[in-house]
């Protein structure tokens, strides 16, 4: 995915346990990954992600909080994607990924048109609101893109 974005860095949120290995820690920082403590609300990760967006860089988030390697179209979303998009007033570019997450196996990646959540800007949204907005506004497009 990062190859498709010319002239900008793609920052991904990655679970913090991946940063424990010296090599992976070095590598993940080189590819602009942001460590996230998934078991709690990681304020440091959220602030780092907000800084990335404020600097007009690109932030990659799997709305499910992980890569979906099941047969299900989508897993239950987390609220972080909608929280960040509405707080920072940035569009969400949906991406559908199809294929096996295995070394040297091809993946098909389809990019959709930006989704603007401006009707939610400035509103106090609960975690459940963010999940519901993701299911209603973003998931249908990701599912469509996965099927192309």
Briefly say what this structure is.
The protein is built from four helices and five strands, in the order E-H-E-H-E-H-E-E-H. With 148 residues, it is α/β, with parallel strands linked by helices.
Provide structural commentary.
InterPro entries: Plipid/glycerol_acylTrfase (IPR002123). Keywords: Acyltransferase, Transferase. The relative contact order is 0.15. The chain is an alpha/beta fold and 148 residues long. Helix 2 crosses helix 3 and helix 3 crosses helix 4. The chain is globular and about 40 Å long. It folds into two domains: 60 residues, no CATH class; 86 residues, no CATH class. A hairpin with a 7-residue loop joins strand 4 and strand 5. The chain has four helices and five strands.
Tally of separate helices: 4
Major sheet strand order: 2-1-3
Average pLDDT, rounded to a whole number, is 90
The arrangement of helices and strands along the chain is EHEHEHEEH
User: How far apart are the first and last residues' alpha carbons, in Å?
Assistant: 17 Å
| Largest sheet data | 3 strands, parallel
Supply the number of structural domains: 2
Helical content, roughly? Answer: 25-40%
Tell me the fraction of residues in β-strands, as a range. 15-25%
Structural class: alpha/beta
- Overall geometry: globular
Rg:
15 Å
